[in-house]
Amino acid sequence: DVGGVEVQSLKGSVNLRQNDIQVQVDGNVLDGACSLRGQSRLDRSNWSTEQLRGTAKLRDIALVKLWPKIGQQAQLGRLIARGDADLSIEMDDWRSPVRGRGRTTLTGVRWANVAIAREVTADVELTGQQLAVREARVRMGQGQLVGSATISRTTGRGEFAVQVEQVPLSEFLEAAPELARTARGNVDGEFTGNISDVWNARGVLRMHRGSVAGVPLTAIRVPVRMSRAAASNRTHVEVAIQSGRIASGRAKGRCDLFLSGRLRGEGSLDLNSAELRPIAKAIPGLSNNLHGRLTTKLKWNSTNLRSAEEMVGDFDIRIQQCPTLLFPG
C-alpha cells in the first residue's frame, strides 16, 4: 500500500535539485491506472522530507477496492462502479494517508446486481478524518438527483442529503415494470439521512400532475422513510400518501415495501369520490364505458411485487351516479 491505497505496480523518477524534490510516478492502483506529479523539500539536517504536494489522475479504478481502505466496506461494499478522478493531493510521507480534493466521475454504478446510474459526477475532498462528497449528480431521464455526503474515515459513519429534481415517475416504479411503462409525470423532493451499519433516511416526494395506467394523479405529496441493514442487505421503505387526488378523488394511503432478494409489500388506500371511468379502464376485464364516482377503502399485499396484477387484497367500494346498464355481463 502507498498512502493507504492498494497498488499493483508503480514506476517513476525522483529528481533532486539542491533541496527540491520532483516526483513523477505512473502505475496501476485499485485495478486501474494512476499518474502522480508532486514536489517536496529535503531537510538535510535529518534527511527527512517535508509534506508532498502534487496532482493525481486516476483512470478506471474499481471502487470495490477503495471501500475497505477508507473504512467503508460494511456500508458501501456492495456499491460497484469504475471511477476517474483528477485530484490535488497532499501526503506527510509515503506511509501517511492521502489527502486531496478534486472532481470524480463514476460509470456503471450499481448496488450488487441492481443498476443505479450510468454515470455520476461529484466534487470530493479526502482529509485525514473524513471523505466529503459535494454536488454529486445523477441523471435520471430528463431530471436528476443532486447529493452531498460526509463519511468518517475511522468510524465509517456519516450523513447525506439528496435533492430530487424533475425525475420521471417511471424511475421510481422500476421494480414494477408493467406500471413503470404506463407512468407519466415528474417528481421533486428531498431526503436526508445517516450512514452507519443501519442506514436511515427520510424525506418527501411531490408531483404536481401525472398518471399511472391512464389514471390521473394531481397534487400528490408523499412522505418517505427508508432503512437498510448493511449486514443483511435488507431494505424497508415506508411510503404515505399524505395528500393528493387520484382520478379527481381525494386520496390518502400508506405502503410498506421490503427488499431482500425479492420485493414484497403491503399497504392501504382510501379514495373518496374519484372518477370511475379512468380507473375502470386501467383494470383488465372491466368495461371501458363505466361512468360515475368511486369511493373505496383498499388493503393489499404482495409476496413478489412486480405489477398490480400480482397484488391481492380486500376492499370496500361504493359507486355513485353510475347507470347499472353500463356494468358488464
Tell me what you see in this structure.
The protein is mainly beta and 329 residues long. Helices cover 6% and strands 66% of the residues. The chain contains four helices and 20 strands. It has a 20-stranded antiparallel β-sheet that branches. A hairpin with a 2-residue loop joins strand 2 and strand 3 (32-43). The longest helix has 7 residues, at 276-282. The chain is elongated and about 100 Å long. The relative contact order is 0.07.
Low-confidence stretches: none
Broad structural category: mainly beta
Strand/helix succession? EEEEEHHEEEEEEHEEEEEEEHEE
Using only C-alpha atoms, the radius of gyration works out to 27 Å
Oligomeric assembly = single chain
Approximate helicity band? under 10%
Number of helices: 4
Largest sheet: 20 strands, antiparallel
Say how many strands there are: 20
Mean pLDDT, to the nearest integer, reads 85
N/C terminus separation = 75 Å
Strand content: over 45%
Global outline = elongated
